[in-house]
Amino acid sequence: MKKILFFTITIITSFTLLAQDNPCVPDVSLQDSTFGLWPDTIQNLAIAQVDTYYEQHIQIKTPATVGEVMGDPYEIEVFGFPVNIAPLSIDSIKLVDVNGLPSVMSTYLSNPDSVFEGNALACVTLFGTPGQNEMNNYDLNLLIDGWISVAGLGTVSLYDQLGDYENIEGYNFIVQSEAVSVEENNDLAFSVSQNSPNPFSNTTSIEFNSDTEGDFLFTVINILGEVQENRVVRANYGSNKIDVDAATLSSGIYFYTLSNTKELITKKMIINKN
User: Fold this and answer.
1) Same domain, 50 and 152
2) What gap in Å lies between CA 144 and CA 131, rounded to an integer?
3) Exposure string (b/e) for 41-50, b if CB count within 10 Å is 16 or more?
4) Is residue 221 domain-resident?
5) Dihedral angle sign, alpha carbons of residues 33, 34, 35, 40
6) Element counts in the chain: helices (H) and strands (E)
7) Residue 124: is it exposed, middle or buried by C-beta count within 10 angstroms (0-12/13-18/19+)?
8) How many domains are there within the chain?
9) FRET pair for 135, CA 20 to 30 Å: which of 54, 106, 157, 207?
10) CA-to-CA distance for 202 and 272, rounded, in angstroms?
């Protein structure tokens, strides 16, 4: 599975009402986050409401060197010899596209060409007005390319090295029919239990209750925000159960999320194969 970032990006977001009245201006005090992404895929993006203008500013902090995110050493082949490029400065990165957004939603970047220097701050805005036809849960993929200068090779891009763009995945853009207040949330029958057993080494079960029948989205991510499992589960009215198999997962901390398109619930689970 790909790493969530080739060039780790620190993302800090704020929710506003009108882009033209509230332009996204990089805040120099926002330079870091625990996961390298903010909000991370656990907190996720703000939920959009049908027929209501939506806007989310995304602040991007690009790393200064390859080693900051890929570790040291990180080698590529130059004329048949391995070369450690970890100390090299990142010249620039580019947000190629945001895949998965409904067609009524758009993106605007503070740099019109979508290219940002390494070790710099920039802003991206998601905006639009989703309608009834857009009411759904959308998996977003941010496609990233980046460039560094390597002696003997000149400018080298991520796409040239991997044959593909790197994905930032794990975000869900949710459009629901109406806002759900905290008071209303307390009365909802939708609930998700802690997995049992926990910790576990082979399999575990997650029970949840639903006041309706339908397709729910179940996602498992690791502590780096990388998606390990993403599937649709069919919910019946009342009690339901999801089984999780750890055969392809390593020991560590994971987070599982269940969404019914109106709200989502996230809990932590631990795999211990020692």
Assistant:
1) yes
2) 29
3) bbebbbbbbe
4) yes
5) negative
6) 3, 19
7) buried
8) 2
9) 207
10) 9
Among 114, 141, 176, the domain boundary falls at: 176
Contact of 64 with 90, CB cutoff 8 Å: yes
Residues 60 and 164 in one domain: yes
Assigned domain for 2 exists: no
| Alpha carbon distances (Å) from 259 to 48, 81, 163, 256 | 14, 48, 33, 10
CATH number at 246 reads: 2.60.40.2550
Q: Which pLDDT tens digits describe the chain residue by residue (274 residues)?
A: 333 343 334 433 433 333 444 456 666 655 554 444 555 555 677 788 888 888 877 777 777 777 776 678 878 777 888 888 788 888 888 878 888 999 999 887 766 666 778 777 777 788 889 998 998 888 888 787 878 777 667 787 877 776 777 777 777 788 887 544 434 444 446 888 899 998 899 999 999 988 888 889 999 988 777 889 999 998 888 889 999 999 999 988 898 989 887 778 888 898 988 7
Residues 93 and 197 in one domain: no
The tokens describing 67, both together, are: 């080693």
